[in-house]
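Here is one chain, start to finish.
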Amino acid sequence: MSISRQTLTIVIVTFKSEKVIDNCIKSISDQIKIIIVDNSNDQNLKDSLEKRYENVECILSSSNLGMGSGNNLGLNNVKTDYALILNPDVVLQNNTISEIINESKKIESFAVLAPLSDDDKCPNYKINQEDKKNINNLNPFNVKSVDGFAMLLNLNKINQIDDFRDQKYFDENIFMYLENDDFCKRLIECNQNIFIIPKSKIKHLGAKAVSDEYAYEVELSRNWHWIWSKFYYNKKHFGFLYALISGLPVFLSATAKVLFYFFINKKKNQIYLQRCRGYLNALFGKKSFYRPKINS
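Its structure:
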């Protein structure tokens, strides 16, 4: 079955995202089903969204699950063959979905498709050096991974792969960061194809998914999880020694900055301390337990 607005569901994981989620939803055709997984467990948000948008279903998680587990929860409630994962701070262009539908017909087999970020300075994909010659602005091109803020999954195909039959698409050990890289790497290892659709464009506001009033606490969380996830990802795919050595320069740099900012900038001191803590917790095999301290 090919992609259409009737065979596609959009999954959005939110957390204190009430200031951006409307712009995201309004950029999506009301013919497409939207499942929102709210990690804030905000009943008022659920009631408001479901009242205002007939195509929206909001699932409240019992706790802050993070991106990977939140997406898995949403995907397990999808009834269509295709699902487009979006971050709440993404806005589609008028033809974003149409171009994906049209261009997908040119591709014989794919597990993941992704629109192209309109920010040329920050491409939302990684590609092998030898494949760069195949990039153009007209035709889909093959990549090794795409960023998790906008990726369309061919669920019918992925569910037939042994490694994904349990419908745990994203590694739930990862709270945030690199869950998309891990997912794409596992697909590539199963000989699946991932494509960018250059005619399909999206705008990603970047780091705006959570309301600005929680910016500092979220920054602490990001610094903890970026280092933890990077160590975990490298250990999982390349071994403990590689994870240890590749993460050590960042840990040593963060340690030096913790000492430097100890007396002159408490906030920066705490940010770099979080980097150290993330690395050490990953080093000693601790779970990705840190959560932003935000009152509901």
